[in-house]
Design brief:
mainly alpha, 2 domains, single chain, 7 helices, 150 residues, Hypothetical Protein Yqey, Chain: A, domain1, Arc Repressor Mutant, subunit A, globular
Length: 150
């Protein structure tokens, strides 16, 4: 028997949330499931596990962007709702590496590539993100690489 897909797990958890009256989880998972099904339709096939995770990462990223906009517009209520939805989605994503571990990876990549200039930032990011996809936050890698390259 194969492992249940992320989509199946989300659907089961959404049903449980409906029964328990957890509207936040229900609504958040409903949107994530819709995004996953849309991606399957676009590709006309079942998604691979890494593709499912990529869709979920995209869901989180769009909510993070919304939080930034709501905070800028002083809409704390909406920003808090988006943060809560991010929390729900992150239960299904692999744990991200903390900043110190990410910093070590960026330093290794810089040493391995032998780069020193800020104009090589893209090279460093590409190397780190390719090797540690889904385990490191791109924005964090960019910030750390920017600090380390002169």
């Amino acid at each position: 028997m194969s492992l249940p897909t992320l989509l199946a797990k989300l659907q089961d958890d959404m049903k449980a949330a409906m029964k328990s009256g957890d509207t936040l989880t229900r609504d958040t998972l409903r949107l994530a499931i819709a995004d996953l099904k849309k991606k399957e339709l676009d590709l006309a096939r079942d998604l691979k596990p890494e593709e499912e995770l990529a869709v979920l990462h995209k869901c989180v990223k769009s909510r993070e962007d919304s939080v930034t906009q709501f905070d800028a517009a002083a809409r704390k209520d909406l920003a808090d709702k988006e943060r809560a939805e991010i929390g729900v989605l992150q239960r299904y994503l692999p744990k991200m590496l903390p900043e110190d571990a990410t910093r070590a990876l960026v330093q290794q990549a810089i040493a391995k590539l032998g780069v020193t200039s800020k104009k090589d930032l893209g090279q460093v990011m590409k190397a780190v993100l390719a090797e540690h996809k889904g385990k490191v936050a791109g924005s964090l890698v960019q910030r750390i690489a920017g600090e380390l390259l002169t």
